[in-house]
Structures are given as C-alpha cells and as structure tokens.
Amino acid sequence: MSTVDRPMTDVDHAFRQIVVGIDVLEGRMARAPERRGTDDLLLTSLAFSLERLARETAPSIADPAQRAELALAAARIRAVIDELGAREAPVLDAPSPEELEVDAELVAVPPPEPRWTAGRIRRICGLALLGMGVVLALFLVYEFTFTGFRESRSQRALLPVFEQRLATGTFGDPTAPVPNGPVALLQIPSIGVHQIVVQGSSPSDLKQGPGHMPGSPLPGEFGNSVILGHNRLYGGPFGGIDSLHKGDTIIAVTGQGRFRYDVEKVITVAPGDKDVIGAALESRLTLVTSQSPTSSDRVAVIAKLHGDPVAVPQRPQAFAGSDQRGTSGDASGLLLAIIWSALLAGTIAVAVRLHAVWPRAAAHLVTTPVMLLLLWLIFQSLDLLLPGTM
Q1: Does residue 336 share a domain with residue 311?
Q2: 361 and 295 share one domain
Q3: What are phi and psi of 69, to 5 degrees?
Q4: Are 150 and 234 found together in one domain?
Q5: Is the dihedral of CA 352, 356, 361, 363 positive or negative?
Q6: Are residues 215 and 92 in the same domain?
Q7: What is the span of the domain harbouring residue 174?
Q8: Backbone dihedral region for residue 106 (phi beyond 0: left; psi -120 to 50: alpha; all else: beta)
C-alpha cells in the first residue's frame, strides 16, 4: 500500500499500479459477506489511494485513448468506494464526496489556499491598527481625565496639612531648609486659581499641584521665586496663566505672611532663550508652564512683589536639576513601558488560545483583569516620559 501512496512520475508504471489495485479491490469485494469485516477498512484506504493516484496521473497523459482508459479505471474505483460506503464501513479521514468528485476529464484538484493570504494579512493589520487606536484613546482619557482626579485628591489632602503648618509656625525661618510637602497657597483671582504649592518641581512633585523650584526663594522673600505647574494634564492648574495681563494680581500665602504680586508681563521662552528661572536682583514671582504638548516652548508669567520683601533667604545652597525645570520627564518610563507591553502581548496570545478551548465567560474572567492591569501599568509608564509642566 505504501507503494501506491507514493507519488508516481512514470505514467506506465502508474497505470500498472492502478490496474493491479483495481483487480485486488474487485477480487476482495467479491468475497462472501461472512468473510468481510475489518478488511473493508483496508479496502477503503486502498480505494482512496488509487483514486488519488489516478487524479495525479491524469494531467501527465496526452493520448486521448489513454485518458479514456484512465477515466474508466477511475469510474471502477469510484464504484468500489460507493459500495464500501453503502456497507457503512468505518472510514478514517475520508474526504467528503464533493471533495472527491472527479469529472470525466479527471481535472486535478487545486492546491489548498495558503495559510498567510493577502486578505488575512490585511485583516490582521487592520485589527492591530484598531487595537492601537483604542489603546491611544484610552491613554488620552487617562491623561486628561484620571490625572485631574488624582491632582484634585492630592490638593484636598495637602490643604489641612498646610493649614496645620500655618497654625504651628513650623516653616517660616528664612535660614532653615524648606521642608517637603505644602509650602504656600497660590491664588490668582482673575483665572480662578486656588492651589496648594508643594516643595519641589520634579514630575512626581507636580502631579500633586504647582511646585516650588528648589534653590529659589519662597514667595515674599527677596529674589526670584519660581513656581512651576501643569498646563493641561493633572488638572492643568497653570492652563490659564497665558491669559493674564499686566496689572493682574497674584496672592501667595506662606508661613511668613500673605504677599501680593502684580503681573508685569507674560512671555514665551523658547529653547536657547535667556531663561527666566535664574536669580534676580529684585523681589518677583515667576510662574512657568508648557506652551503646548507639541512644542518645547514654555510660558512664563513674571510678577513683581507689591511692597518690600519680608526677608533675604539665607538657607543652605540648593540646586535644581534638569528634572526640576519642567522640561523633561523620567526616561525610565520607556523601559517600563516596553516591559509591560511585552507582557501584555503575551497575555493577549494566551487569551486567544484560551478563548478557543474554554467557555467564553471563563476565558474573559481569567484574562481580562490581567490585561487591564498591564494596560494601566503601561499608561503609568508612558506618563513618566511626559514633561512635568505639560
């Protein structure tokens, strides 16, 4: 039987194989019914092999008479197959009659469709682009909605701490280092700003609210007091400072008192321009934020203290690093995003397999929470990459 199954290239040899096989088939079929039995399974396998050999041999025959003889042989084989089917003999891996139907010319069956067709590749690419679009939309919702809730919650938690510090007078010494946590209350009536200012202007500090840049004096003291804040994300506390005009009032409350500043100008600071966060020989307040998500320019509001400064700061020297200037994010977020994305891709692959073998509800119950958690971690990692004042 293995000889019959082997693809043949010599037409005469194939003919002999077919003729001998038909004789064996018809001879076994003529046996008494009581002598049949498990032989029918072997006969079925032999019949299908002979029919396949005839189908493979047909395209190589040019002689019409020989093709007619082969067509007759194929009809005899089909008759044996039909009789075996009528006996209800078990047939393993037998193709359907529609798949095995051969016309009088024994036209070869076309090869199976390749697994990776252009249509399938387009569908996969389309699904991938759709998934990326959904993830991007969810990330934007995370940045412009959830981060605002997070900043608002931080502000509510900071307010009672700041009030307690004011009551106990624990931070009013211009010679002592500025403590972490809330250090000032900033009010801009014309644009509705009422924010607790924290010490530090790193991206993590600015997630709580506006941040006082280390190394600069506190509001009310002599020098250039610099406060940075988000423009659009995390509640966008400084989103409206570019609409301030000369003469608008800014109020700052610290442990040393309540101070009023008058806006002198609103400017745009491009990369390479003279920075506005350096030291100054006057008492002023500088508010800084990003101009837009697609620009590296910054918006700065410069306001002059109304009256005399309360003190000249004599604190230990402190320097603001590049992460404290609001122009860059945390580069470690990229590595974390890659790691979580790889885990999410693996989880999706496992989910596809589970959906194929498990009930749909059970597969969703196991895989959906894991994918949502990994998606949340990806969003947090990408958030680290964004500039602190965006």
Answers
A1: no
A2: no
A3: -65, -40
A4: yes
A5: negative
A6: no
A7: 136-324
A8: left
Q: What digits encode the pLDDT tens for the residues 255-276? A: 899 999 999 999 998 887 888 8
* Phi, psi values for residue 54, rounded to 5°: -65, -40
CB 261 within 8 A of CB 217: no
Same-domain pairing of 177 and 303: yes
pLDDT single digits (tens) 97-156: 554 454 444 444 455 556 667 777 888 888 888 888 888 888 888 888 888 888 999 999
pTM, 2 dp: 0.66
> Which H helix or E strand runs over 267?
strand 257-269
**Phi-psi map region of 116: left, alpha, beta (phi>0 left; psi -120 to 50 alpha):** beta
pLDDT tens sequence across 56-99: 877 777 777 777 777 888 888 878 777 777 765 444 445 555 54
Give the position of tokens 């990326």: 132
Which residue's structure tokens are 């194989």?
17
Q: What angle do CA 239, 194, 385 make, to 5 degrees?
A: 40
Q: What is the tally of structural domains in the chain?
A: 3
Radius of gyration of the chain (CA): 41
